[in-house]
Design goal:
166 residues, alpha/beta, two-stranded parallel sheet, 2 helices, 6 strands, 48% helix, RLP23-like
Length: 166
């Protein structure tokens, strides 16, 4: 116990090389700064037995710490603690609703259009070539000419490369 009183400053994320932080059993209060998840080198954290309040910023590096790192703070809530925040259920319901409104239907139409585009891209040329025999003959004559031209170019390039080496 160091008898530290006050709050963790928001500028703590400036200590980017910080690998261990033990502020347990002090008289710290306020919220855990939202910049704490930016401490990517932080391997050990203990904020237990203080007087922190509000929701834990459980993102980034903070997801690697267990409930023990935050225990003993009666007004602290959110993951990884068992105590859920009051607005957490509302946030979940609102995010699900936003996903349905914003992303769900857009995703559904996006994937539907990809499937239809693929099917039409394959089937339309097939049916056109199957129905119009003259178009089918012209198409495959064209493909044959392209293949012969590519093979000829390959032979010429191969011959040039081998005559230069000798």
């Amino acid at each position: 116990m160091n008898h530290i009183i006050g709050q963790i400053p928001g500028s703590i994320s400036m200590l980017c090389q910080l690998s261990s932080l033990d502020l347990s059993s002090n008289k710290l209060s306020g919220t855990i700064p939202s910049s704490m998840p930016l401490l990517t080198f932080l391997g050990y954290l203990n904020l237990s037995n203080n007087n922190f309040s509000s929701k834990i910023p459980f993102t980034g590096q903070m997801t690697t710490f267990t409930e023990l790192a935050f225990a003993g703070n009666p007004n602290l809530c959110g993951t990884p603690l068992v105590t859920k925040c009051q607005d957490e259920d509302l946030d979940k319901r609102q995010s699900v609703l936003e996903d349905k409104i914003d992303g769900g239907y857009i995703d559904q139409w996006f994937y539907l259009s990809i499937g239809l585009g693929f099917a039409l891209g394959i089937l339309v040329p097939y049916f056109v070539l199957a129905i119009r025999r003259s178009w089918c003959d012209a198409y495959f004559d064209f493909v044959d000419k392209i293949v012969k031209w590519l093979l000829f170019k390959r032979r010429v390039t191969y011959a040039k490369n081998h005559t230069r080496r000798q």
